[in-house]
Amino acid sequence: MRIVVIGSVAAGTSVAAKARRNSEVNEIVVYEKGTDISYSVCGMPFYLGGAVEQLDELIPRDAAWFKTRFNVDIMTATEVISIDEVQQTLLVKQLATNTVFEDHYDKLVLATGAAPRIIPPFNQQYKNVFMMHHMADTRAIDSYLKKNTTANVLIFGTGYVGIEMTEQLKQRGLSVTLVQRSTQIMTHYDGEMAYRAEQVLLENGVNVIKGVTAETIVTADNRVTGVNLSDGTKLTADFILLATGVIPQTQLVEHMMIAKGDSGALQVTDKMMTSVPNIYAVGDVTESFSLIDGSPLYRPMGSTANKMGRIAGDAITDGQLAHRGILGTGIIRLFDTTVAQTGFTETVARAKGYEVDVLYNIKPGHADYLNGTENVIKAIADHQTGRLLGAQIIGQDGVDKRIDVFVTAISFGAKVADLFHLDLAYQPLYATTKDPILYTGMALENARNGRPLLSPTELNQRLAAGDDLQVIDVRSQKQYRQQHIETAISMPLGEIRKRIAELDPTMPTVVYCNKGVTGNAAQNLLLNMGFEDVYNLSGGHKNYQLVKMYLQ
To answer: Which of 413, 416, 420, 390 is nearest to 403 (CA)?
Structure first.
């Protein structure tokens, strides 16, 4: 059997390696249009910021290594220009000589990836306008920054590439302005969590402009020297990066009537087979699906591409691996802060029709007496079943390990009640006795069982609508005098029993403290004393004030 793979970054090389591990009898050839293979796309910003000293560190293997290790022929600078799916043949061009030849396949794997989306008015090449997608882009950016005086950087797009490059270029001492078309940055997050991330960027000197597009540009010597935005803002530019997303590279199969998803990426089975016989697809050219509900999900990531490649290589050689879906998990560093998410956001869950419980959990990542710092966890659960649906975290302390616990829990269908019973590693340097994961489970399970939570957004909406609500501030009077929710009365937790006659037990009641724990105690007390409808404000006063600023 002759296996031909088109593309050799994360997905393509994984196909070849797994297929060879399973069988020595097949011919395996990989065609790569570029000159580099199996490189770390996600590591490229860190080379430009100086965290990675040598670019070659991001290219650990070459074609000769694959030939020696796996007996796989990787042909670089070689482009597949057409596919005949009926005859199962390919036309292939060697770019160095422009020589065209024909090849054939028994099984074909498309690992063609995705191409950067180029937005107007940057539709032609300019000396100082770059994308960040291939190793060649990294070399070009590095060369430009070393040879040219650069002060003002404009970055369009606030996905992972845009944010990572913002951090790294700021560390090079450059002034960076982020421009985002939508009204929030980092659109895979709920708005108020993205707002927290935006505050970190602002605190680190990044200029953030949202809700605008580039309308016209000013050029000189084939360079873009200025950009005029749709809101009338005029920006000067020495260097521009377009990080506005990607488009699946499906050109080679457009003539086939091959099945695609709404994302434009190729639809595949759990064995990575397309709708065309003997053609598989992996990586960024391919649409995945949600592990939670099976709905289509396109979230191109190197980790997913690598996994898909292994599955395809196994399936082609009669293995039993099958794709189980993804959660869209992501994590990124913003200077000294980490932001991560997995599964459904509140916005997505509600759009899908779930009745959700939403918790804001503000807790230190490890013991505060050993300098633990606060993380903000937003967790979403299905009220009906108790299943954990998603989580978002921002903080400086153990964000990575906790998002991975949530990923594991969701992947295995955990209910929020299960989180409390996890025997997580505890030592004051690494966690608290009641780890934020455990508390998340406790609070969400309580919310499902008569201890409801009210989010700041919901409270703000109900107050604006004029709903009759009894809002009680259970913090100290000193904290109340410093700042409080406008309609709230001050009744510290220790005074509630003595002053209970001042309250109406039949009226919907919202209690709040600073972060939520004392509020929960007050909620329990009032419910035990016969109050009918008592909510704890999730995340407390501190969270409410931040969300209120976001909503303004």
So the answer is: 390
Read off the pTM. 0.95
| The pLDDT of residue 261 | 97
pLDDT at 330 over 90: yes
Q: Is the confidence at residue 517, as pLDDT, over 90?
A: yes
DSSP notation for 356-419? EEEEEEEEESS-GGGT--EEEEEEEEETTT-BEEEEEEEESSSHHHHHHHHHHHHHTT-BHHHH
Select which of 246, 513, 526, 534 is catalytic.
Answer: 513
350 with 439, same domain: the answer is yes
Of 217, 244, 271, the position where a domain reaches its end is 244
CA distance 365 to 395: 8
Q: How many domains does the chain have?
A: 4
* 124 within a domain of the structure (yes/no): no
Residue 464: partners with Cβ closer than 8 Å, 6 or more residues away: none
Residues 218-251 have pLDDT tens digits of 999 999 999 999 999 999 999 999 999 999 999 9
Q: Which domain holds residue 209?
A: 129-244
Average pLDDT of every residue of the chain: 96
Query: Angle formed by the axes of helices 302-316 and 10-22, to 10°?
Result: 30
Q: What is the CATH number of the domain that holds 474?
A: 3.40.250.10
Task: Answer yes or no: is 539 within a domain.
Answer: yes
Q: Does one domain contain both 341 and 399?
A: yes
User: Which residue type sits at 427?
Assistant: Q
484 and 522 part of one domain: yes
- The 3-class secondary structure across 100-123, one letter per residue, is EEEEECCEEEECCCEEECCCCCCC
Per-residue pLDDT band for 25 (boundaries 50, 70, 90) equals very high
Looking at residue 10, its pLDDT comes to: 86
Active site residue 42: no
**Is 90 exceeded by the pLDDT of residue 51?**
no
Distances (CA, A) of 96 to 73, 79, 86, 238, 405: 18, 10, 29, 33, 49
Q: How confident is the model at residue 329 (pLDDT cuts 50, 70, 90)?
A: very high
Closest CA to 537 of 527, 529, 528, 545: 545
3-state secondary structure 187-223: CCCCHHHHHHHHHHHHHCCCEEEECCCEEEEEEECCE
Q: Examine the fold and report which residue of 203, 221, 244 is the final residue of a domain before the chain moves on.
A: 244
